[in-house]
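To whoever picks this up:

The nightly regression suite flagged Probable nicotinate-nucleotide adenylyltransferase as changed. Nothing in the input moved, so I suspect the structure step. Input below, exactly as stored in the fixture:
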Amino acid sequence: MKHVVVEPKVQVALQEQNTKKAVGILGGTFNPIHIAHLILAEQVYSKLNLDEIWFIPDNIPPHVNKKGAIAPRHRVEMIRLAIRDNPHFKVDLTEIMRGGISYTIDTVKELRRRHPENDFYLIMGGDMISDFKNWKNPHELASLIKLVGVKRPGYVQLCDFPIIWVDAPFMSVSSTQIRELLQAGNSVKYLVPQGVSEYITKEGLYNG
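Regenerated output under the current build:
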């Protein structure tokens, strides 16, 4: 299949002709949410002229490694604390409320059914794009939602599906690194929003 790239400026022009609300969805375990998630979301929001970004925490990720995720209520509350000062960031509980394994195709179908007034954009890092062909029903998924790839160093920007590629500052920050720092008793100041850091301390999360 031919490699297809949609330039962000073209997507913005198309979006301006559309009367539907443009909503980016950013899924993940968010265990915990950190500044790289927020920067990525804000860059996509700005460069594609979206109306909102919805953070969708998963219930059980499809891959084998569940990352030792803490209870959903804690992950959801940390997202809420992280985005509380940004009016175009929202949290959506579709995957947690549905339960079971969180397959993106199921989530997108449910969102489209519940919100026909929205056009949805699936936000993915460059590492996820390279593995997209191995997701559940990738061809059907690509037909239901616009795919947004955030460029990442070290990953070839090739995909058999139409991708809107977006440049964003790359930050080598991961939830795994943050958990390891916390388990070792080290500071995560500036790696997570202050409200998230305070919540982690108050609830005694990630103490090992």
